[in-house]
Amino acid sequence: MIGIDLLEYERFKIAVHRSGRSFLNRILRGKEMEDNREIMWGTIFSAKESFIKLVGGMPTKGSFQDIEIKFDSSSTFSVETFGTVNQCVHSKNITKINGEFQVFKNGLILTTITANSGENE
Q: pTM score, two decimals?
């Protein structure tokens, strides 16, 4: 299983400045908000989009708040899920979730997430 997202940082930045904290509060959990660098917020948003693609779409009643991105090193991250999204992950037997990201000089952010599911382990 794989989920991929490519985010244009400038467009994300415009959305943040236009909508302010209300936009960030919809997509970031408390700990994710602690990093005050907008580029990291963009990376988190892109990582969540990759994860949603990996699971086949946002579950009904799920939200970005049900997904937490935790950076492991300079270019990798892990994903923790809660609520409806967590139920979806368990129902699909998704395991071994690994994420990577790259920020390009032209302002693009690429995130990829791979995972195994019960039937292909």
A: 0.93
Expressed as residue numbers, the domain containing 33 is 2-120
Residue 20, classified by CB atoms within 10 Å of its CB into exposed (0-12), middle (13-18) or buried (19+), is: exposed
Count of structural domains, the chain: 1
State pLDDT tens for residues 38-93.
Answer: 889 999 999 999 999 999 999 999 999 999 999 987 899 999 999 999 999 999 99
> Strands 76-81 and 108-117, how do they pair?
unpaired
Distances (CA, A) of 11 to 15, 45, 58, 93, 117: 6, 12, 22, 35, 33
Residue with tokens 């909508």: 19
Domain with residue 7: its CATH number is: 3.90.470.20
